[in-house]
Structures are given as structure tokens and as C-alpha cells.
Amino acid sequence: LFYSCLRGSDRVPLFPSPARTHVNYEVKDNVAVIRINDPTSKVNTLTRQLQDDMMEVLNEVWGNSAVKSAVIISTKPGCFIAGANIDMIKVCKSAEEVSKLSKEGQMMFEKIEKSPIPFVAAVNGTCMGGGLEFAIACHYRVATKSKKTVMALPEVMLGLLPGAGGTQRMPKMLGLPTAFDVMLTGRSIRADKAKKMGLVHHVIDPLGPGVKDPEERLIEYLEEVAVGVAKGLAKKTVTVEKKKGLMQKVQDAVLGIPLVRNQVYKTVTQKVMKQTKGLYPAPLSIIEAVQAGVEKGPAEGYHVEAVNFGKLAMTPESRALIGLYQGQVACKKNNFGKPEREVKSLAVLGAGLMGAGIAQVTVDKGVATILKDTTTEGLARGHDQVYKGLNDKAKKKSITTFERDMTLSFLKGQLDYSGFEKVDMVIEAVFEDLSIKHKVLKEVEAVIPPHCIFASNTSALPIREIAAASKRPEKVIGMHYFSPVDKMQLLEIITTDKTSKDTTASAVAVGLKQGKVIIVVGDGPGFYTTRCLAPTLVEGIRILQEGVGPKKLDSLTTGFGFPVGVSTLIDEVGVDVAAHVAEDLGKAFGSRFGGGNVDVLKTMIQKGFKGRKSGKGCYVYSAKKKDKQVNSGTEEILKAFKLTAPPAVSGDEDVQYRLVSRFVNEAALCLQEGILADPVQGDIGAVFGLGFPPCLGGPFRFLDSFGADKLVQKMKRYEDAYGNQFTPCQLLLDYAKDPSKKFHK
Amino acid sequence: ALKPLGKTLSKPGVRNVVLVEGVRTPFLQAGTTYADLMAHDLARGALQGLLNRTAFPKEAVDYIVYGTVIQEVKTSNVAREAALGAGFSDKTPAHTVTMACISSNQAMTTAVGLVASGQCDAVVAGGVEFMSDVPIRHSRKMRKMMLSLNRARTLGARLSLLGSLRLSHLVPELPAVSEFSTAEMMGHSADRLAAAFGISRLDQDEFALRSHVLAKKAQDEGLLTDIVDFKVPGKDIVSKDNGIRPSTMEQMSKLKPAFIKPHGTVTAANSSYLTDGASAVLIMSEEKALAMGYKPKAYLRDFVYVSQDPKDQLLLGPTYAIPKVLERSGLTLADIDAFEFHEAFAGQVLANLTAMESDWFAQNCMGRKAKVGAPPMEKFNLWGGSLSLGHPFAATGCRLVTMVAHRLKKEGGQYGLVAACAAGGQGHAMLVEACPQ
Lengths: 745, 437
Fold this sequence. Notes:
The structure holds two protein chains of two kinds.
Chain A: E1 23-28, E2 31-36, H1 48-63, E3 69-74, E4 79-81, H2 86-90, H3 95-113, E5 119-123, E6 126-128, H4 130-137, E7 140-144, E8 150-152, H5 166-174, H6 176-185, E9 189-190, H7 191-197, E10 202-204, H8 214-235, H9 246-255, H10 258-276, H11 281-296, H12 298-313, H13 316-330, E11 345-349, H14 353-363, E12 368-372, H15 376-395, H16 401-408, E13 411-414, E14 425-428, H17 434-447, E15 453-456, H18 463-467, E16 476-481, E17 490-495, H19 501-513, E18 517-522, H20 529-545, H21 550-560, H22 566-573, H23 575-589, H24 598-606, E19 619-620, E20 629-630, H25 632-640, H26 652-673, H27 679-690, H28 699-706, H29 708-722, H30 730-737
Parallel strand pairs in A: 2-3, 3-5, 4-6, 5-7, 6-8, 7-10, 11-12, 11-14, 12-13, 14-15, 15-16, 17-18
Antiparallel strand pairs in A: 1-2, 8-9, 16-17, 19-20
Chain B: E1 17-24, E2 28-29, H1 39-54, E3 63-67, H2 78-85, E4 94-97, H3 103-116, E5 122-129, H4 140-151, H5 155-163, H6 186-196, H7 201-220, E6 230-231, E7 237-238, H8 249-253, E8 275-285, H9 286-291, E9 298-307, H10 317-329, E10 338-341, H11 346-356, H12 359-365, H13 386-389, H14 396-411, E11 415-422, E12 426-434
Parallel strand pairs in B: 3-4, 3-5, 10-11
Antiparallel strand pairs in B: 1-8, 1-9, 2-8, 5-8, 6-7, 9-12, 11-12
Helix pairs in contact in B: 1-2, 3-14, 6-11
């Protein structure tokens, strides 16, 4: 995406322009080598300065008759162009303003596409969004196979669309089905995959050390190869068109039929609706823009792209998603400084689902890890879990089998404490029982070195209670991982008032190394995430008791934007775990955490309905059938515990808001009590850890867009029907009273 | 003219180990005259040739160590089979070693160890590679089925196993041509290496041409005296290497890259080619050799093995090995009179020379304060190298050591340095000192 790009081409500047800082070029053997490097940032983005410089250079290049072809390359290590600058969109006040940006970008890239001389994009490093749109406007693409070379059109994840011709060029380049896949998922594409798809023409392997920094040399080498290609293009010894395979020809022929294309649009739209429940406008806008271009020609296509881009930028969904993106970036930083010593070896206690998962994400980053369990069976199971996790990656070819083996060599499974005298951190993932945690803590403290940190992966037990058994509470911290550990991005770190800053810095550093998005919260029963989850689940049980079936409850929750319905969530978490948490937190917080009857869960446990792990919970699980059936046993239990639903607050929408308001109110309480340091971490924790609807951006973003006053009104109605579980907290009341107060600026 | 001898590298309390003789079969391109033989046939040729040339009493051979890379499954200990077939005493034990392209270096240094420690007085070392025939296996699925078939007791069980046979079972498995750890072909890695060091196609072609021209000259002048004739049953006597083919720069420039397409620089013409051949050397304690009336050719002095990143530094062994071996013996590059480097690829040799000339590389990759420097070309591979003479993987090491000994004698030098890279990211260097004439 580009704007203000036509300066200079239409008029001769009266004064020599100020020095170009972001783009420069030289002519080598009739090839203009245009180099990009934003000196003010670690990455190149399409800022105004970069665009102005680029336009000036392009005009000079086009005005130079000695130049027969051109190469566009970035000299910034690991980054071609990371995309448009989000701030450029954020400052716009209206859809029209944003559309204008899009139109200017479209025109700019069209000029390159229609350039009298061929352009080669030489891509090394991040090439996303506007960067990729720039590259595909060029006539030929050479890319390095460096791990940092990633191509994507991630606009959809920000609630936007590729607004600088992306929706128009992609279908032509990749065919409709692949183009939709790339734009609707926003997925990252590595160079060799891009070559296979036809997104790039030519790939280059990364280089090892030579007589200078390898990255620097790789960029030089990329330039050498790209210049060679550019010369070939000018001499017509290299052609842009690739020979199409049979499959491609067949696909093209079939998609040449308008009826077939209509079917494609229909299918894609249905798929999008199924996955988004219609809560996300961007995918539909993308389909619309593509369809306009393909069916009605480029003029209409570009027009719809620009208009839709403007509209999308003004949607609350886009604001929410951009907020999440920026929050995620913020939660990938260590705000506690550099730890005194790096954690180079780590031990995990308990080889269960969580323990093995933690071990996996740790060895994955080359950290020596001891996985300790009390039984050989447990250990073998845990080891297999790690192996399977890595082997699955090898099967998908994201790592080689050799890398799998090497990674696995960092893992040491054992039953005793040998070697613990050398570890820098111990993370316990043993059974959630305070006395067991105390026993383990004492055993560990007897063998670990003084600097070693003890972290507890508990989901609800207050860390200060665990630390009470410690001789060195300043070294005790909570690290709450989410299951499955290798898939879930969030890590919730819990500090007590005794936890030292260095211990926190160390835990954050380990989490970052493990690739986690991290929130650091204060100590208390359930910390932040579990504390928000518990009342929501308890409310879910009440709703079930009131006669809303598990399937209906699921569809109401997913219909609101939660990725997993409440009934399914209970099964996934485990009925026993849910009961444990509900009871524990119920004791800690009293009647506010009431609602559904915990005995429902207890009866389910008695009957063996412990959720997915036991094959039965709210649903019956079988390996054969994909479509899960409601467990009739659970239905009977629910009948036995039946409650009468007050009609005034039991409509579908009210059911949804009862769940959401309890979640949001508890989140607000956490902020009010200082468990949460800021709303950003609250939003990130809720979305990445608990699946709060991303389109709403998290509880605080939701309050900002929905209005605290509106939620408070609803809660008052529910309070009348049910009592203090729905009493809005003081913070909510404050924000409701003054609509100008917002959690996010 | 002999230059005044520098200090000798003999060490107090350590036996002097000498190279008495070194021979090899002619090196032939795979698929040519040797095509119908087996690996141990070539090995026999080299071993018998060594016995013939030295007239060494068989029973005085204490031990035999032999190298091979691609193993013929029928002769997994090819050392033993070849020694028996070559008429060595059946009382002489023999074992086979493997270390990719430095397998016969490993065989020789094993022999050096045996002699230096006093375990043996006379050891035969060598290596063989036979690329005209390589073991091609049934697929894993097929092998599994065949093995189960062996164990199946009833006809029904056998038939049901056979019934599981699918077309995919019949797809054969070729020997790995790529590095196991990185799944990268060596030529591909060499091309990347050349690119990393900025070695141009032109430089590589020029170096390859130099190798062929020098080899041709050496062949014509009769300097390749390590060759022993080999009689192929039913065919002529082979007495010359057949891969030496000086071409022109113009012809070489026409070739397309062999590994990285289309922009790579490594081609068939600037790479070593698949070769059949075998070599053998007689290594003894100096004492015993002199007592038996032999005139040893050279002392085998300090040697080192090194290993590094198999991905990006696969073929940089010489760069790492040379400073180490020089330091160990207290010599500098300037003390060396004759260099013999294994030439896997022209780009690889030039990358090593560039790395040795680079302070950046020394400081950032080797943890050294400064570069060690590169050998002068007027002392470097003057009789051709693996690019032109051929490269039977496990036979090359002995060829290098024998050639450097012969060159020292011919050129009147005192110190020779042998260096080679090998698959797996390993390398080797050895100092050879001429014996007093």
C-alpha cells in the first residue's frame, strides 16, 4: 500500500529534493539496482519517506535510457518490506481517507507493472502485506530460502484486505483457489513453497560464513543473481512465463467457465461463513473484491478493493484485531530487564500432558531439559509425547528428521534428582494439590543450586501458598502454561510480593525463548485467566441446568465468537479439573462465583464422565465418528439438577451476555485489584489463553466498543434475576458513568 | 639443488614412522574398463602391486588396514577379503575403516599409531572405491516383507504375506548421495560454499583446467610412478589414468551448473568425477625398514583430524586442519615445500584458499587472532589432483601422501603437507618429511 506516489513524475521540482535516506540506486551493466533500507527502523515499512524516495528513484530510472531493466532489493538484514505502516491507517478518520491510500498504492504498483523495462524483486526476509503486493507488481521474483524469508498477505488477520492490488493480482498469478487460500488465511509462505505455488520464479539457498557476515554476503549474492536475471529479461534470454503443468492447465480451463467460478465463490463464502459465523467482515470483502475484478474487469476490481479497504479500516473488528496484533508484539518483550544469568538448563517435574509439553517447547529451542517423573510408565508416555510432537513437525517437513533427533538429544528423562544440582530453573507440573506441591518444592530445594528458580505450573493454586514452604520465596514464581503447550501461545506468569525482579526477568526470558506471548500478573486464587474462566464455566453449568442442551450452548458461545463452545470446553479442560477449580475458587471468592451447581460436575465424575480424556463428558467421543453425540448420561444428570429459567433473562442473546458479562466483570475486577497491570495484558490473556472472541479484541477492547454502560445495564437485569454474581464491579460502574473513559487510547 | 635441511620433526622417545612405498591402480572413470569387477578386485590389485614392487616378505606384514566408503555388502570387511585374495598371509589380521573421502588417511594414521606405539613394525594401509557398481537395495517395505517371509511357518502365512505385495514395494533404494544430517548433496554445498566466498565460475573453471593441464604434464613426463599396471580379466592391461582431459576455457564455460540451477557455478567440468581405483602403502618403523634394507621415502609426522558444521562448512576441513598441524609441529606455511590438497571441487579448493587468506574467517569462525595464509600456487598440486587424476573416495588419501613424498624427492624439498576435506564436515592434514637421501 502506497500513497502520495505520483509526485515528481508530473512536475519538475523547482529545488533539488532533500537527500534520499530510504532508497538509493546504482546502474550496473544497464541494470538499475534499487536498494531499500529504512535507517530509522529495524524493518522496512512503506512509510511516506520510503515511498517518496522510491518514486523519485523510479522516475530517474525510467528517465535513463541506458537502463534496460531493474532490480528492487532491500539491504536490511532479514527484511524486504514488512508491509504498510499500520499507523498510517490508524490516523485516518474516514473510510474515504483510507480508500484514497489504497487507490494511490494501486496506481503506484500499476506503474511498475506497466513499466517499459522489466522489474525483478529480489526478496530476502519478511515480505508481507504491501511488501508482497510490491513484489508481485514486479515482473519477476527471486527469493532466498533463508528462514527469515516469509511471504504473506496477513491483512485479513488485521480485519483488512490487501489494498494495493493484491486482491487483483493474486488470482491471476495463483489461480482462484490458491489466491483465496493465501488471502483468507493470511498464512505465511516460505520461499520453496512460494516457488512451487508460482509466487516466485527463482529461489536461492542461504550461504554459510565466508569472508564477511553471511547475511550481508547473502544479500550481495541475491543481488548478483537478480542482476543476472534482470539482464536476461532485458535480452529476452529469460522469460517471465512459466510452463504450466497439466493440472494447472486443467484447472485454468475449468475455471474459465463462469458457472464453475460462481460455484467457487459460493463454496468459499460458505466456508468463510461457517468458520467466522459472519462475525468477521474482512474475508467476505476480499471475496467481493476478487469477484469484482475477475468478473467485471480490473477497473471495477480495483475500485471495489479500494472502497472495501476503506470500509474495513473503520470496523470495530479491524480495530480489535489490530489492537491484538500490537498487544501481542508488546507481550513478546521482556519488560523486566536482562536476567542476571541465562537459563541454560532446565528441569520439568512431572511428565504428564503439561510437563511433557513444557519440555517439548524447551528442547525445541536447544535448552538442555531434564524431564522427571515418578514412574517409568509416566516417563515413557511423556517422552513419547515430545517425540510425537517433534516427529509430526518432521512429517510436515518443517524440520528434518536429523533436526528432530538433535532436538530430542536435549531431553533427558529420569526418575531421580540427579543433575538437579546444575539446573538453572525447575518448572513443576505435578498434580494440583498443595501438599504435593509442598513436598516436591522441599525435595527440589534440597538439591538445586542457590541461583535456581522454582516455577510452578499451576492453574489456580495461589503461588504465595506454594511459596510458603520455600526457604527462598524470592526464587519462586508461577508459570501457567495452557494445553496443548506446543500449540497455545499464551504463558501467564504469576509473581508474588516476594518474587524478585530478576526471577521474573528470568521466567519471562525463558517463556520468550519458548516462543510464548507473555502476560505477567499478580498472585491470587486463579490469577487472571482461571479467575475469568471459572465464573464463565459455572454460568455455563447453570445454563445447562436450565435446560439449554450442550449443543445449543456450544452454538450460542461459538456464535458469539468464542472458538470453542462452553460444553466442549468443559470436556476439553476435564470435568474433574473444572470441578476442582470451581470449588476452589468458589471457596476463595464466595457467592460471586456461584451459579451452576458444582454437584453436577461431581456426579459426572462419579459416573466416569471426565470429559474427552475419558471418552465421555458432555459429549460421547469415539475415534471413529467425527460428529460427536450428546452424552445421554449427562443429560440425565442435568435433568436431576434441573433449574427453572427465569424467562426475562433466558433468551439466546441473554444467555450469551450472561456468559460474557461474568467473564468481563471478573477481568475488570482483576484490573481493579491490580492482578492485571494493564488492559492490554488482560485482552491478550483472554484471547490467547481462553479464546475470548478475537473479533472483539478482548474484554477491555469489548468494553470500549460495546460500551461499559450498556453492559452494566444488562448486568443489572441479570443481577435482579440471579443476585450478586452479576453485580458490576466498581471499575465497570466508573466507566459506565463516564462514556469518554476508555481502556484503550 | 637441495636446499639446506631445516630441523627434523622427529620427537624424542617416539619411533620414527616411515612410508616405504606407495602404489595405486590406475584411476578410471566409473563405468569404464573396470566396470565388471568388484571392489576387492581393485584392492587386490593395489595390494599385490605393493608386494611386487617392494618384494616385501608377506609374513613380515603385521597388520592391514584398509578404507572404503560405499561398502560392497558381500565384502563388508574388504580389507580381509582383498588381503587373502592378494596372497597375503592368512595369519595377518586386517580391518576396514571408513571416514568418507579421508578413509585411507584414517587407514594410514591407524597404521602410524600401531607402529609408533610399538605394536607393529610393518603395516599395510590403503583404500578402495568402486563406483561402477554400488549396492542398490530393495525398499524397506520389501525387505520387511522378505524377512517376515523367512519366519512365516505355514504356506497360508506365506501366501498372505505375498498377497500384501504392492507395486510400491518394488521401488529400489539407491545409496544416499546426500549428506545424512542435512539432506544436501555435496555438490550443492560446494556451490553454496563457492558463493559464500565469492568464487566465480571463471576462477573455478581456470583452476580445474590447471589441474588437468598439470596432470597431463605429469603423466606425459612419467611422474605418476605410483601407478601399478592392472590386468582386467578378458581385457587389456590398464596402466594409465583415463580421466585426465585438458579442455579449453571456452568449452568448459558452455556447461550448465550441475547442482544449483540455473545460477550455480559448480559444473561437471570443475568437480571431481566418480572414479574406480585402489591404493596401498607400506608403513614401517624406520629402524625395521633400514634393517630390512629398504630406503624409506618419507617420514609420516604430525597429523590432525578436524570436524565442523556439516551444513555450511562441509568442505572447509583443510582450513581448520592446517593451522593446527603446523602449530603442533612448530612450522609455518613458509616452511612447506610441497602441498597436496584433495580437490573435491575447484570451488571448494578455492574457498579453502580464500578462507585461509581471510582474517575475518580466522577471527569469526576459527577463534584465531589472524589468518594463517594460503599456500603459494607454485608449490600447490603440481602434478594434478582429484579433479583430473580422479577421486576414488577411499583411495585418494594414499595417493596424496605418496604423491607428496614423490614430489619432495623430485623437487628436493623437506616438508610436504597433505590436506583433505570429507563428507560429514570433517577434515584432515598431515605433515610429511622427506627422508635423508
